[in-house]
Amino acid sequence: MELKLTGKKALVTGGSRGIGRGIVLGLARAGADVVTCYRTESEAVTSLARELKEIGGNHQLVKADVSDPAEVDALVEDCRTSLGSLDVVVHNAGVISHVPFAELPVEEWRRVVENNLGGPYLVTQRALPLLSAGASIIFIGSRVATVGIPLRSHYTATKAGLVGLTRSLAKELGPRGLRVNVVAPGPIETEEPAPAEVRERYQKMIPLGRLGTPEDVAGVVAFLASDLSRFVNGETINVDGGI
Ligand code: NDP
Q: Is the pTM of this model over 0.95?
């Protein structure tokens, strides 16, 4: 058994930085052709384009906000013209927010819901006509959605919402040969190093003794994207070092 994604065509939202970038590079290195999107032009986008070129394959970086229906339509059209169809959709784009619930403004509630739940709704629905039989839809949730955490009630509500969305879509889309699953990361250290006290706290809490990396998440995403997971549907896989 070998994890190969050669010939697979993937859309990964929010790939310019952090976990999404790790997922894009992981899928591309395993042989997939990848379209990814981001909101902000930056050096991170340029350097990702450079790395993808070095890996080789048919990859595209598209500026598109997943919370905007017109931009999602344009993104899906880009996928259609450059890839033709899709075998994998990874919903990684998301925003985090720390606000005490009692002070949470309605605008901030809506911003987080529109990005973290509205985006996956729009992208999944609009991409459906492009999905091939056997395609894999993967939502990036969060470990805190099931355990809870102060100051992030709105964020955790959206991530828990993805679990419900997944369970229902697994049943609704399964008969069409589509699989839908969640990957729920614990604390992942991305480009910005965690402050020393945060790292020490997590090192004590996490049995494996370290924070996760984008590559740790990308490995599980690659498994769910591959045919090795062909009978896994409606599941949430935690990637949290056993926290
Ligand atoms: P980052 O903030 O580092 O990166 C987010 C990426 O998504 C960026 O490329 C950003 O691009 C893009 N993005 C955000 N909103 C949108 C949007 N509306 N449309 C298009 N692109 C968008 O996040 P992380 O890598 O830390 O997190 C990635 C995912 O993993 C999120 O869903 C997060 O909730 C989840 N997660 C993260 C954990 C962690 O410890 N880091 C733990 C558990 C879950 P741009 O800057 O251009 O907007």
A: yes
89: amino acid identity, one letter: V
**Which residue's CA is minimally distant from atom 33 of ligand 1?**
94
User: 57 alpha carbon to ligand 1 midpoint, in Å?
Assistant: 24
Task: Give residue limits of the domains in the chain.
Answer: 9-235
Q: For residues 141 and 163, is the Cβ–Cβ distance under 8 A?
A: yes
The ligand 1 atom nearest the CA atom of 39 = 47
Phi, psi of 42 (to 5 degrees): -160, 170
User: How many Å lie between the centroid of ligand 1 and the Cα of residue 175?
Assistant: 31
The three-class DSSP label of residue 31 is coil
**How many angstroms does the Cα of residue 114 sit away from the middle of ligand 1?**
14
What's the fold here for domain 9-235?
Rossmann fold (3.40.50)
Each of the 243 residues of the chain gets a pLDDT tens digit; together they read: 889 999 999 999 999 999 999 999 999 999 999 999 999 999 999 999 999 999 999 999 999 999 999 999 999 999 999 999 999 999 999 999 999 999 999 999 999 999 999 999 999 999 999 999 999 999 999 999 999 999 999 999 999 999 999 999 999 999 999 999 999 999 999 998 889 999 999 999 999 999 999 999 999 999 999 999 999 999 999 999 999
Is residue 21 a contact partner of residue 44, using CB atoms and an 8 Å limit?
yes
Computed from CA positions of residues 220, 226, 231, 234, in that sequence, does the dihedral angle turn out positive or negative? positive
Give the residues surrounding ligand 1 with Cβ less than 6 Å away.
Answer: 13-20, 37-40, 65-67, 92-96, 115, 119, 140, 142, 185, 187-188, 190
